[in-house]
Amino acid sequence: MGAEDSAPAARLSASPSPGGVDAPPQIRPATAADACAIVDLLATIGVEGTLGVDPSTLRVDEEAARLAHLDLRTACALVVAIGGLVRGFAVAVRGTEPPIAHTATVSVAVAADSRRRGCGRLLLGGLSVWARAAGLSKLCAGVVDRNDPALALFHRAGYAVEGIRRGQLALGGRLADEIMFGLRLQPFPDGDGLRPRHTRGTDGRRRNA
Ligand SMILES: CC(C)(COP(=O)(O)OP(=O)(O)OC[C@H]1O[C@@H](n2cnc3c(N)ncnc32)[C@H](O)[C@@H]1OP(=O)(O)O)[C@@H](O)C(=O)NCCC(=O)NCCS
Q1: In terms of C-beta density within 10 A (0-12 exposed, 13-18 middle, 19 or more buried), how is residue 184 classed?
Q2: Which of 19, 46, 143, 162 has a beta carbon 3.0–4.6 Å from 182's, enabling a disulfide?
Q3: How far apart are CA 36 and CA 79, in angstroms?
């Protein structure tokens, strides 16, 4: 990161707060002008070790360029602001290969001092609105198994656990399981054609779930 990235926590708290810290959170599309605040935010949250990306690799100029050229058919980036300050960020990126082009992968992060105020839920709700408008059938997310707030958030937002990838993530020098979440949004255009899911009873026979 460059010199402008040297004091993320200080820069986050130094800006004016026109609506006050008690103002209700509001979501809006992220713009290139938000790049600095987003990189700061992710750098601060990154030390918690729950994000799937390494925030130290993020650069303000690259993030600004990415946001300036975001194609809404393939991605959505939202911020949540409280009193005019960016306190959270969420992004959904559509699958690039044909078999997964009806899906998008979601990630969300909210500043520690702004949690449990509905920011995460607002951001996930906004991504669902975008995904429906973009014609997607499904949103997906992967969450570290020890990340109880995120597990609770995705459950609360209606996502279902679809699987567990054992030892998928190497975080803080140890392996962690990744919980895979999915949210079905709308039927696949030609019908989803999914086979019924089965579980096995204690007699070993398959049963419809
Ligand atoms: C996960 C995270 C985004 C939640 O953001 P948030 O703004 O605090 O979430 P919300 O206030 O919208 O919470 C919505 C619901 O999620 C659940 N929830 C969120 N945090 C929770 C917690 N710490 N404990 C229990 N439930 C929690 C609750 O059901 C909550 O509803 P309620 O407050 O009415 O009970 C935030 O903790 C965060 O940024 N963590 C670090 C980054 C991260 O882990 N991102 C996820 C990886 S994709």
Answers
A1: middle
A2: 162
A3: 12
How does DSSP classify residue 73? T
Residue 40 parent element (H or E): helix 35-46
Q: Is residue 127 lining ligand 1, measured as CB closer than 6 Å?
A: no
Name the β-bridge partners of 75: 93
CA–centroid distance, 80 to ligand 1, in Å, is: 14
Provide the residue-wise pLDDT of the chain in tens; the chain has 209 residues: 333 343 444 344 344 455 577 889 999 999 999 999 999 999 999 888 777 677 788 899 999 999 999 999 999 999 999 999 999 999 999 999 999 999 999 999 999 999 999 999 999 999 999 999 999 999 999 999 999 999 999 999 999 999 999 999 988 788 999 999 999 998 777 777 777 776 666 676 766 65
Q: Looking at residue 30, what DSSP letter applies?
A: -
What length is written for the chain?
209
The overall pTM is greater than 0.70: yes
Other C-beta atoms within 10 Å of 21: how many? 12
The atom number, within ligand 1, closest to the CA of 107 reads 48
Ligand 1 centroid from CA 87, angstroms:
13
Structural domains in the chain, CATH included, are 3-208 (3.40.630.30)
